[in-house]
Amino acid sequence: MSEFIKVAKITDIAEGKGMCVEVNDKKIGLFNLGGEIFAIDDICTHAHASLSEGDVSGDEITCPLHFASFNIRSGECTGPPADEDVATYPVRVMGDDIEIEI
Ligand code: FES
């Protein structure tokens, strides 16, 4: 059964940045797009790289290893060499806390 779990504080992620959190042994990338928080799988679908260490441009994250790109809002893979989307997770902000449903 899924549940919302507190994973970070809203002040932990600057706008246009990402961070990795670990929930139930899963690495999740949190991203702040204009004050709105999104959660996607942190591990690139191409190989083993942490997407939260990549560069955010608009709604997209570029993988730091081989530069595949993904839409942070939808998880859609938007550029090679990856060809699979990343999973997304529902996010809610409760006061200062970021919670994700997983
Ligand atoms: S590991 Fe992300 S593009 Fe290769």
Describe the structure.
With 102 residues, this protein is mostly beta strands. It has one domain: Rieske [2Fe-2S] iron-sulphur domain (Rieske Iron-sulfur Protein). The protein is 0% helix and 48% strand. It has strands at residues 4-9, 18-23, 26-33, 36-41, 55-57, 60-62, 69-71, 77-79, 88-89, 91-94, 97-101. The strands form three sheets. A four-stranded antiparallel beta sheet has the order 2-3-4-9, with no helix packed on it. A four-stranded antiparallel beta sheet has the order 5-6-7-8, with no helix packed on it. The mean pLDDT is 96. The structure holds FE2/S2 (inorganic) cluster.
Strands in their spatial order, largest beta sheet: 2-3-4-9
Mean pLDDT rating? 96
CATH topology heading:
Rieske Iron-sulfur Protein
SSE series: EEEEEEEEEEE
Low-confidence residue ranges: none
Indicate the CATH class: Mainly Beta
Question: What is the radius of gyration computed over CA atoms, rounded to a whole number of angstroms?
Answer: 13 Å
Helix-residue proportion = under 10%
Sheet having the most strands = 4 strands, antiparallel
CATH architecture: 3-layer Sandwich
Instruction: Estimate what percentage of residues fall within beta strands.
Output: over 45%
